[in-house]
Amino acid sequence: MSESILVVDDQETIRHFLSKALTEEQYSVITAETGADALSLVEKESPDLVLLDLKLPDMDGLEVLEKLREGGNETCVIIMTAYGNVEAAVTAMRLGACDFVVKPVNLEQLTLLVKRELERHSLERELLHRRRVAGEKFSREYVMGESASIRRVYEIAEQVAKSDTTSVLIEGESGTGKELVAHYIHEMSGRWDKPFLDINCAAIPTELLESELFGHEKGAFTDARYQKEGLLEVANGGTLFLDEVGEMGLPVQVKLLRVLERMTFKRVGGTKDLTVSVRIISATNRDLEKSVRDGKFREDLYYRLKVLPICVPPLRERREDILPLAKHFMSHFNKVFHKSFSRIAPEAESILLEYDWPGNIRQLKNLFERIILLESGETVEARHVQLTAGRVAAGALSSLDLLQNILSGNELPEGGLGLERVMEDIEKALIVRASEVCGWNQTRAAALLGIKRDKLRYRMKVYGLKEKEDPARVES
Question: Residues 6 or more apart from 289 whose CB is under 8 A from it?
Answer without folding.
Answer: 302
